[in-house]
Amino acid sequence: MWRVKHFDVSVDDPQRAMDFYSNVFGWKFRKWDGPFDYWHIMTGDEKEPGIDGGIAKRQDPSAQIMNFIDVPSVEDVSISVTRNGGKIIQEKQTIPMVGYIVIIQDTEGNMYGLMQEDLNAK
């Protein structure tokens, strides 16, 4: 069984959104040192149940919050998605120093990200 591991928030104004989430929920943010602007979201104490996420400037006008499911192989799970009536919305993409992602759509039109961790990804 694979769990939701991470969420991404797409926003028009990252600083405005970080101020909002910090003031409303007490979330903390740390700038990622990767090849594009991205901030890690710490939503609470690591010892408590829950997940953390990330925030970035919206690239697609329709982008919303995306939940990412941790999987051992994005390729294998992508095959299972299509065999079971889902769709691949975005093919495998490498996130340097993180791993690989694929965006899928389930049979009901809901979108999720698949994430395969590989800290050596380039």
Topology of this protein?
Layout: E1 4-11, H1 14-25, E2 28-31, E3 39-42, E4 52-57, E5 66-70, H2 74-83, E6 87-95, E7 99-105, E8 111-117
User: What are the segments in which pLDDT stays under 50 over at least 5 consecutive residues?
Assistant: none
> What structural class do you assign from the helix and strand content?
alpha+beta
The total of helices stands at 2
* CATH domain topology of the largest domain: 2,3-Dihydroxybiphenyl 1,2-Dioxygenase, domain 1
In total, how many beta strands?
8
Helix content: 10-25%
Relevant terms:
122 residues; alpha+beta; 2,3-Dihydroxybiphenyl 1,2-Dioxygenase, domain 1; 2 domains; eight-stranded mixed beta sheet; 2 helices; 8 strands; globular
What does this structure look like?
There is one protein chain. This protein is α+β, with helices and mostly antiparallel strands and 122 residues long. The chain has two domains: 6-60, Roll (2,3-Dihydroxybiphenyl 1,2-Dioxygenase, domain 1); 71-122, 2,3-Dihydroxybiphenyl 1,2-Dioxygenase, domain 1 (Roll), CATH 3.10.180. Helix content is 18%, strand content 41%. The protein is built from two helices and eight strands; from the N terminus they run βαββββαβββ. It has helices at residues 14-25, 74-83; strands at residues 4-11, 28-31, 39-42, 52-57, 66-70, 87-95, 99-105, 111-117. An eight-stranded mixed beta sheet has the order 2-3-4-1-5-8-7-6, with helices on one face. Strand 6 (87-95) and strand 7 form a beta hairpin. The two termini are 28 Å apart. The mean pLDDT is 95.
